[in-house]
Specification:
Helix content is 40%, strand content 14%. The chain has 12 helices and 8 strands. Helix 1 packs across helix 2 (48-56). The N and C termini lie far apart (51 Å).
Length: 294
């Protein structure tokens, strides 16, 4: 009975988000590259059954924030048997000592959080060894700390071009595919376009100008449950949405990335849950906003 209810809830929620993604894409200015946005369903803390249900509903891209959780989930027999075409995105902070473990994940599709040239070098050398005789390059994004918050990971924006140049010229096993940011939580859209998203747009323009790359070949991963529609409207090609598909997250411990963590006294709230939802008035205002590609 529980599985039937879960199936219906996940299916309806996913369908609603897909429709909202498509509607937001239709509202984008014609000056932006006509790239269909990719929906990444963020399944952290959720059981394999929920991933399988979303997969059955047509979802293929899934995101995880913690290496150990991704390793366990991607190797789960239920997911391996039921989801042969699943594409895993790693969207959390990556430490160099976890690179080998991450790159061994079955069906790893994207590493969205490369935030230094040194980390890129480590991922490059590890992927060269793991892929063996294969010539398949690993898709990576460079994570930018657009909000300047110490609590956020990512490159300082001014280091973007040099880091991308390093990956393109010195990391032959990697395929530089775009830029990613988290941005400040709870931004009030009645104040205008999100400045963190605008920052990522401008850094993409700099990268494309410097490396002579077409805009449509450099993706922008930005936007989560509370702001993915605005992110798409201003140019996101990849949005990371979790709680409004799978429900609010439950954190059974305070160290989700450790093998045997001890229980915490109380669950940590999801940032998506604490962010303010955009008002109807703000959403209508954003529909009429024109944003340039620079």
């Amino acid at each position: 009975m529980w599985k039937v209810a879960m199936s219906e809830e996940v299916g309806k929620a996913l369908q609603s988000v897909v429709e909202r993604v498509n509607q937001a894409a239709a509202r984008r200015p014609k000056t932006l590259p006509a790239v269909s946005p990719r929906l990444v369903a963020v399944s952290k803390t959720k059981p394999p059954d929920m991933v399988v249900e979303a997969y059955r509903q047509g979802q293929r891209n899934f995101g995880e924030n913690y290496v150990n959780e991704l390793v366990d989930k991607a190797s789960d027999p239920l997911i391996l048997d039921s989801c042969p075409e699943i594409k895993w995105h790693f969207i959390g902070h990556l430490q160099k000592n976890n690179v080998n473990k991450l790159l061994g994940v079955p069906n790893l599709f994207f590493v969205e959080t490369v935030d230094s040239a040194k980390l890129a070098d480590k991922v490059n050398s590890s992927w060269q060894r793991i892929r063996g005789g294969s010539t398949q390059r690993l898709k990576v994004m460079v994570q930018i700390n657009t909000s300047g918050e110490q609590s956020k990971h990512g490159l300082p924006p001014e280091e973007t071009v040099n880091t991308v140049k390093h990956i393109v010229s010195q990391c032959p096993a990697l395929h530089f595919s775009g830029l990613m940011t988290i941005g400040r939580y709870g931004y009030d859209l009645t104040l205008g376009p999100n400045p963190d998203f605008q920052m990522l747009l401008s850094r993409r323009q700099e990268v494309c100008d410097s490396l002579k790359l077409p805009l449509e070949e450099v993706e922008l991963s930005m936007g989560m449950s509370t702001d993915f529609e605005h992110a798409i409207e201003v140019g996101a090609t990849n949005v990371r949405v979790g709680s409004i598909i799978f429900g609010n997250r439950e954190y059974p411990n305070s160290a989700a990335n450790t093998p045997n963590p001890s229980p915490a006294p109380s669950p940590a709230p999801s940032p998506e849950k604490t962010s303010k939802m955009v008002s109807e008035e703000a959403a209508k205002k954003m529909q009429h906003l024109t944003v340039s590609g620079h």
